[in-house]
Amino acid sequence: MPPSLSSRVTSLQPSVTVACMNRAMALKAAGKDVLSFAAGEPDFDTPDPIKQAAIGALQAGQTKYMPTLGDPAARSAIAEKLVNENGIAGLTGNHVGISAGAKHALFGLMQCLFDQPKAGEAQRELLLPVPAWVSYAPLAELAGAKVVEIPTTPEGGFKVTPAQLKAAIGPKSRALILNSPSNPTGAMYSEAELRALAKVIAETESVAPDLAVITDEIYEKIVYAGVPHFSIGSVPEIAERVVTVNGLSKAFAMTGWRVGYSACPGEFGLRLMKGLATIQGQMTTNITSFVYPAIRVALGEGAADVERMRAAFAGRARLITERLQAIPNLEVTSPQGAFYAFPDVSQVFGMVTPNGTPIGSALDFADALLDESLMAVVPGEDFGGCGGNHIRISFACSEAQINKGMDRLAAFVDGLR
Q1: 13, pLDDT greater than 80
Q2: In sequence order, what DSSP letters do the residues of 345-374 get, joined into one string?
Q3: Coil/strand/helix, residue 390
Q4: pLDDT at 304
Q5: FRET label pair with 190: which of 68, 161, 213, 343, CA 20 to 30 Å apart?
Q6: CA 212, CA 372: separation in Å to the nearest integer?
Q7: In what helix (H) or strand (E) does residue 75 lie, and over which residues does it extend?
């Protein structure tokens, strides 16, 4: 009998986003004309100055081991960015850790914040507004957390309210995750909304003194609905319990470079980075050594390229929203940031495709759409909450592909009976 795998692995939920993307790529490799709207990956190339910085470092021999959380110059550049752009006071390079993508940063942070519960001990809780990115809950559960979902609705803009947050916070609350702009919904919290949530967190400190806030701001530059990005870590009353997570993947079209980072001011931030360095030192150590100069160039010289890409995403957001709103039986809220539309497809549940496939869920819808119309989207069940009524459509692709995909989606929905 062959050896078994750990329950840690066998019970871990695979990423539905990656699964959908892989299935679409397999069909495409088999010669099928698949249109993929599954991956959250910009179709733009990394701007040339960023690439040249890495090439120059490689040619100059920067190919050796580096400090686990990054070289001092890159960490300081990130700290300066967060202070000057995001208003997070008190940050130095020592309060910053660079990881192999924001997902890697989140994994390490969960390991630093949560313990596996001892026998008879209640689990510490991760408070998670849902629908939410599919990896937050599994990463927390892997670290020993109990995930407490806080449901949001399309009518409420997919945003948690101060009253909901106050009701959710308890003695076992260890961390709250916020994601603005949001994957999968495209929702954004305004400055006033985030300040109201921060007020609740400050006022409930006696109830949950160990509560940390993890704010995932990976889409901060991709905004287009008149709501400026605001970092909750800049609110002084809670600043030293807020961990800001970000990276270069989305804004700078650097998904394959695997550059993410986390930062937190104050004494807790220093302890957290020390813990993260310990965890990361047993995993990957530093990211690729010749990438560090590219980080500095991206943050220091990339604004024009970021704006060029942001403007393109804004046009695509308008286009896909208009096209989706024209399809009967679909309901969609206009995204305010990121590059995802999150239409409600529940009105077609109970219908049947021309091939005789019954549609009883978002997963059925997505599977049938790929099988019968060769269009890949992500079903919403794994995003939690009301996500089971939705599909996620990434519009990180050309307007020509968006129009072609919306034609296929409209025809697919029109053929349901």
Answers
A1: no
A2: -GGGTTEE-TTS-EE-SHHHHHHHHHHHH-
A3: strand
A4: 97
A5: 343
A6: 46
A7: helix 72-84
The C-alpha atoms of residue 146 and residue 125 are separated, in whole angstroms, by 5
The span from the CA of 329 to the CA of 135, in Å, is 29
Quote the strand ranges of 9-151, DSSP E.
35-36, 96-99, 125-130, 146-151
Tracing tokens 């997919």 back to the chain, one arrives at 158
Query: 66-301 has which CATH code?
Result: 3.40.640.10
- Identify the pLDDT of residue 108: 97
| Backbone dihedral angles phi then psi of residue 151, each to the nearest 5 degrees | -75, 140
Residues 6+ apart with CB under 8 A from 307: none
Give the pLDDT confidence of 172-212 residue by residue, as tens digits. Answer: 999 999 999 999 999 999 999 999 999 999 999 999 999 99
| Torsion angles phi and psi, residue 19, rounded to 5 | -60, -45
Mean pLDDT of all residues in 220-239: 96
Integer CA distances (angstroms), 46 to 38, 54, 60, 224, 414, in order: 20, 11, 21, 21, 39
Distance, CA of 373 to CA of 308 (rounded, Å): 32
Mean residue pLDDT of the chain comes to 95
Is-contact 101 353, C-beta < 8 A?
no
Residue 111: CB atoms within 10 A of its CB come to 20
Residue found by looking up tokens 């919904």 in the block:
185
HSE-up of 335 (CA within 13 Å, CB side)?
A: 33
The CATH architecture one would assign to domain 7-45+304-414 is Alpha-Beta Complex (3.90)
